């Protein structure tokens, strides 16, 4: 991964990224979500690696490392009682609580293409990596946020929803990056791109706050949605998280 500050050790960077994801788990649980879904994209799906074009060998290694990190991340979250439990599977179709409706048509097509991939034209090293990923037991995860035997303790969220085309979903985020030629392949590129994205989000939030104030400042429900919608009291049971 790209260094965050340039001087930190790999384990320090991993600890910070893990803390960010654990905070998201804690937040979605407090908002009343019961499940959260995580998926490592198949390495043959090159369009899901949005920050830099990668060779198949690099994507294969990244798939193995990301799945291993997800497993350790969830194990630690369970040990610290941030989540109740989690299930892992090799595909979404092998898991009863991972509805395919959560995946885009292109993602489903990528899963099918990876299942039927022909490795005969690949070199021996790449064939070995493909075989390792093929037998990988856990690439899709269903996170159980709530203990089914207890009453969920919800935390009220009185913050208004502030829609932004930077953070609403992956496709819009990629579109913004392409339109502004943003890159993340080096520390310098990542810093510049992050500044551009943050400034854009701040501008959208300022505009949204102005409209919110003009309409009387009525509080609305806010949690991490895939699109700009809010629920109070009975939020949807599934919180998305994509790989």
UniProtKB/TrEMBL annotation:
GO biological process: positive regulation of transcription by RNA polymerase II
Reactions performed catalytically: L-lysyl-[protein] + acetyl-CoA = N(6)-acetyl-L-lysyl-[protein] + CoA + H(+)
GO cellular component terms attached to this protein's record: histone acetyltransferase complex; nucleus; transcription regulator complex
Keywords attached to this entry: Chromatin regulator, Nucleus, Transcription, Transcription regulation, Transferase
EC code: 2.3.1.48
GO MF, one example: chromatin DNA binding
Classification via PANTHER family: CBP/P300-RELATED (PTHR13808), HISTONE ACETYLTRANSFERASE (PTHR13808:SF1)
Localization: Nucleus
The protein's name: histone acetyltransferase
Domain CBP/p300-type HAT: start-end pairs: 1-206
Main subcellular location of this protein, as a coarse class: nucleus
Taxonomic superkingdom: Eukaryota
